[in-house]
UniProtKB/TrEMBL annotation:
Keywords: ATP-binding, Membrane, Nucleotide-binding, Transmembrane, Transmembrane helix. Residues 620-857 form the ABC transporter domain. This is ABC transporter domain-containing protein. It is a multi-pass membrane protein. GO terms for cellular component: membrane.
Length: 942
């Protein structure tokens, strides 16, 4: 098959996309169960809503009261009449009110134990001593300032009445001459004023309390009729020089404004500015912290009208005299129709539930990323040519599409079954919020995946994160949001934690839908965007998404390439191979060894010549490649590869032999980009493995020691994916896949279309070899490719590898001498990180196998006869094995002739009993053992 060339960016991206879609199709039921989770939670909310409607919203005490007016003979009510006159005070709020009650306007005053008194952090301006708090007689303090002190002093005297005005025939008109105050903040309507309906005292604010006498008055009409006691509270008017002093005193008196933690509250303050007899211009200071914005305490009315009336009346009396008054008799709400209690559970607890729903995607996406990392699938894809760009683009788009579909289903489910949380709020705002957050969540998954290496560990950690985030948001963050005394700045700091920004956005949706449902209005619209907290939540999410994505890509690039933290500052222009020069500095002790091994020395010289005169005839060139692992836990550094020089031309299979721990895998890992060399360099088709690894991968195939496969993908789907990465398309791709499957005996019997997870170990091994060879890569690394195969499959696999090496440079590691002799054109025996010998199998056996191996088994008493026999045949023979009558000897070939050995044995048989005997030439296994022992012995004594 012709060389398919290098796959383009889009071709590799298409390959990964097709693989992901196939993988997703294999997991269709898992995806279905995931998408059904939002539906289950929405149905649960509906069930809870039905219970709330039954027990609360439709309960008798939460709707207008009714009375039966007509009954039948059986005593069953036939007709009911409902209205205000049949209702309790609680039920009255739900009745139609055609003529709302009139309530006297009240002034908001601090509680007696919070009113301003003399303190170290406040100026001494005539405030009373703190002892008044014990008797609950502290005055209500009002501050004044302005440009005209004398005019201000006149207004101070007219502000509060000095006596109680009583009118028994019309209480409201009589009370209009007085200034009434309450400690209770107003409600959200004036149908029922909490300051009057609650069983608390109403204060009559006077300039001077003559006695502690209390006066009783009745307000309203049945059933909203209340009898209240008026208690005198002295008003204290104080002048300050300027508005800065007023601000300072109000701030320090507020319960969070002073370092001592004491509360010294001012009822109100007036800045007269440039007021004179011809110009009335006033700024009024009032306590706005009673205006809360939470689902439990709706936005309250402000008791500001009485403050305005007080200063207006004082100015009018200044101009017209004390007999002139502008009476403020009552406040009254507009008429209303019958209402019902509308507690929407989805809006109340929806933020907690939907936080869990959205965050459930976090462990799903994170598990997918860490699974590829744990099973080393990301690495094997990269080794077969999948670059970082296509991987990031397709993976991100894949997770984004999955997440977007998930949140769309959530919105559809919630709207279809009637949850006000979704129906009342603008869908475009909801979708934009969810879309922005899932982008942030995907970026966080990429970032967090760099921390974990095991799916089980991250699964536990991620689900703890999901459930704790929802619970902390519900029971801490929401409490802080609804606490007006808690700094808004700290709320924003808390929202920097991604799960809390999600909760805050859902909280705002719940708040608007709750209020909209309660009042029969819409929820959040774009016009409410700035009034809510959504503006800064959106900003936080966008900024964190950008930072998380940038950090994730940076860490991934640094870890996958083995580069330093400042790799992006290095010049992208690499030196040409023609400009490189080999390192001539070798370790002294090693030079002597190398000089004694002419084959290794010749290889070094060939490498040096190739480095000086680059040529494409050698696909792999390693020059003085070295890898040292740093010492840990008190252990010295470990030298894994020591100055390896090797050149492998195209069309050659080079076998690496060596005992376990010799450094073979470290060498393969350096050549495949998993490890960065400590020193030296390696060239693959003229490309440096330290700087051009991404380009090297496009022409490389790898069969790792352990099979790296997707359990749910079939063998055919694996080969289709890797074939596309090698730029195979159309009929060429189909043909290459079928030929690969046939060559490794995975085509017939439906094996090709079975999931790889159901393959036996041998079948997985054959599939891994087929993957490494598909697309005719120019360089292939095989790490023990025939491990676990039966003899027939092993022989067949050797034929496949031998046929594939025609235009490919193959480096193969194995422990099978038979495999090495059959496949490899040249062999190198690796011991303790260094190359001990190199050559084809015949040369190595000739060089290191200059002896015959003679074996004879006799009874124990004739062992001496055997030794004498061997001494007669070969005086320099060496015994290498002896156990229970069986002895082995090495006979130098130059001393013996095979015919002489046979004659000597025949003669010996007549003298003593010989059970068995044999004469064998040196095998490759003998060469390997001899070289390995010699190399290890030399390293020990050196």
């Amino acid at each position: 098959m012709a060389d398919p060339g290098t796959a383009s960016f889009l071709t590799r991206a298409n390959a990964l996309l097709r693989k992901n879609l196939t993988y997703q199709k294999r997991n269709i039921w898992s995806n279905f169960r995931l998408i059904m989770i939002p539906l289950y939670l929405c149905v649960l909310l509906v069930i809870i809503q039905v219970l709330v409607d039954t027990q609360f919203n439709n309960a008798d005490e939460n709707r207008c009261g009714c009375q039966c007016t007509v009954t039948n003979q059986n005593g069953k009510c036939v007709n009911k009449t409902c209205g205000l006159e049949f209702s309790t005070s609680d039920q009255a709020l739900f009745c139609p009110i055609s003529s709302p009650p009139r309530w006297p306007p009240l002034l908001q005053v601090p509680r007696p134990d919070s009113r301003a008194v003399r303190a170290s952090f406040l100026p001494d301006i005539g405030l009373p001593d703190e002892s008044c708090r014990r008797t609950r007689t502290c005055p209500v303090t009002l501050l004044f300032t302005g440009n005209n002190h004398s005019l201000g002093a006149s207004l101070l005297g007219n502000l509060l009445p000095s006596s109680v005005a009583v009118n028994s025939t019309d209480p409201l008109q009589g009370l209009a001459y007085n200034v009434l105050g309450t400690e209770i903040e107003a409600g959200d309507t004036n149908y029922l004023d909490p300051g009057i309906s609650l069983n608390l005292t109403i204060y009559n604010i006077q300039s001077r309390c003559i006695s502690n006498a209390a006066f009783s008055f009745s307000f309203g009409e049945e059933p909203l009729k209340f009898k209240k006691e008026l208690k005198c509270a002295q008003g204290l008017n104080l002048w300050r020089n300027n508005s800065r002093e007023v601000n300072d005193m109000i701030f320090k008196g507020y319960r969070k404004g002073n370092s001592q933690g004491k509360t010294n509250e001012i009822a109100a303050a007036y800045d007269l500015l440039n007021t004179d007899r011809n110009n009335f211009n006033v700024h009024i200071y009032y306590n706005s912290t009673y205006k809360e914005n939470s689902r439990n305490t709706p936005t309250t009315l402000l008791r500001l009208p009485r403050s305005v009336n007080m200063v207006s009346n004082a100015f009018l009396q200044l101009l017209q005299g004390p007999g002139t008054k502008m009476l403020f008799e009552y406040v009254k709400e507009v008429p209303k129709v019958e209402t019902r209690l509308r507690l929407d559970i989805a809006s109340l607890i929806g933020p907690l539930f939907f936080t869990w729903v959205i965050l459930l995607l976090f462990p799903v996406i994170l598990s997918s990323l860490v699974y590829e990392k744990q099973e080393r699938l990301r690495i094997i894809m990269k080794m077969h040519g999948l670059g970082d760009g296509p991987y990031w683009m397709i993976s991100y788009a894949y997770f984004l599409a999955m997440s977007t579909l998930y949140v769309i289903c959530l919105m559809i489910y919630g709207s279809a079954i009637g949850l006000k949380f979704f129906r009342l709020n603008d869908y475009s705002i909801q979708f934009t919020f969810y879309f922005l957050y899932v982008n942030l969540q995907i970026a966080l998954c990429f970032l967090v995946s760099s921390i974990f290496s095991k799916v089980k560990t991250l699964t536990v950690a991620s689900y703890i994160y999901v459930f704790l985030s929802g619970l902390v948001g519900e029971f801490l963050l929401e409490f802080l949001i609804e606490d007006p005394s808690f700094s808004r700045g700290w709320i924003i700091v808390l929202e920097l934690f991604p799960a809390f920004s999600l909760y805050r956005g859902l909280y705002e949706f719940g708040e608007f839908s709750f209020q909209g449902n309660l009042r029969g209005a819409d929820g959040m619209k774009w016009k409410d965007f700035s009034d809510s907290a959504m503006d800064h939540v959106f900003l936080i999410i966008i900024v964190e998404w950008f930072l998380a994505l940038t950090a994730a890509y940076y860490i991934d690039k640094m870890s996958s390439s083995g580069k330093g933290p400042l790799f992006f500052l290095k010049s992208p222009i690499n030196k040409s191979p023609s400009l490189r020069r080999p390192s001539l500095q070798r370790q002294g002790s090693k030079v002597v060894v190398e000089m004694e091994k002419t084959d290794v020395t010749q290889e070094i010289e060939k490498v040096e010549q190739l480095m000086l005169e680059p040529s494409t005839s050698h696909a792999i060139v390693c020059d003085n490649l070295k890898k040292v692992y740093p010492g840990r836990d008190g252990n010295p550094p470990k030298l894994a590869v020591s100055g390896l020089s090797l050149a492998v031309p195209s069309g050659e299979c080079f076998g690496m032999l060596g005992p376990n721990g010799a450094g073979k895998t470290s060498f393969i890992n350096m050549m495949t980009g998993l490890l960065k060399p400590t020193s030296g360099t390696g060239l693959v088709r003229g490309l440096d493995i330290c700087n051009d690894m991404d380009r090297v991968y496009t022409s490389m195939g790898v069969c790792p020691q352990h099979d790296l496969l997707w359990e749910t993908l079939t063998g055919r789907e694996h080969l289709l994916f890797y074939g596309r990465l090698k730029n195979l398309k159309g009929s060429d791709l189909i043909q290459a896949v079928e030929e690969s499957l046939k060559s490794v005996n995975l085509f017939h019997g439906g094996v090709a279309d079975k999931p790889a997870g159901k393959y036996s170990g041998g079948m997985k091994r054959r599939l891994s070899v087929a993957i490494s060879l598909i697309g005719n890569p120019k360089v292939v690394y095989m790490d023990e490719p025939s491990t676990g195969l039966d003899p027939a499959s092993r022989k067949n696999l050797w034929t496949v590898i031998k046929r594939a090496k025609q235009n490919t440079a193959i480096i193969l590691t194995t422990h099978s001498m038979e495999e090495a002799e059959f496949l490899c054109d040249r062999l190198g025996i690796f011991v303790d990180g260094s190359l001990q010998c190199i050559g084809n199998p015949k040369e190595l056996k000739g060089r290191y196998g200059g002896s015959y191996v003679f074996t004879m088994t006799t009874s124990s008493e004739h062992e001496g006869n055997v030794e004498r026999l061997i001494q007669d045949v070969s005086p320099n023979a060496k015994k290498i094995y002896h156990i229970a009558g069986t002895q082995k000897f090495e006979l130098p070939k130059e001393e013996v002739r095979i015919s002489e050995v046979f004659q000597a044995v025949e003669k010996a048989k007549s003298n003593f009993t010989v059970f068995a005997w044999g004469l064998a030439d040196t095998t490759l296994e003998d060469v390997f053992i001899k070289v390995a022992r010699t190399g290890q012995a030399f390293n020990v004594f050196s």
